[in-house]
User: Fold this.
Amino acid sequence: MTNGIQTGRRLFVALTALVFCFAVASNAIARGGQRGNSGASYTEQEVIDEVNVAGQTVTIAGETYRVSDSSRLFDERGGRIRLFELNGSAGSSDGDMVEFTVRRSDDGRRNEIRRLAVIAGDFE
Assistant:
């Protein structure tokens, strides 16, 4: 009788684990295949459309991102820069080409720039 109870418990644990794995996979599919939990990051390369210093935002490829005090901004040589030093294509010159890492926000706020490095731009 004990073996039957132990086998039943093992089967229950195995089925519970299978359901959990299915739930995790379904969540990944619902997110469009992006891996990770909320707050996960991803890196892209694009041209800056607009820089809003007062609003602490940057618009890149039509999407607006928050820039916080913890965001790290770098010029082509790796030196730290400030938000106002970035150039958007909405102005008279071409926008800076940047590589940036974004922290996704699942709480309704804008996604946040974690790291932004200028690949090609006009710095003097």
Notes: The chain has two domains: 1-35, 41-120. The beta strands are 41-52, 57-60, 63-66, 72-74, 97-103, 112-120.
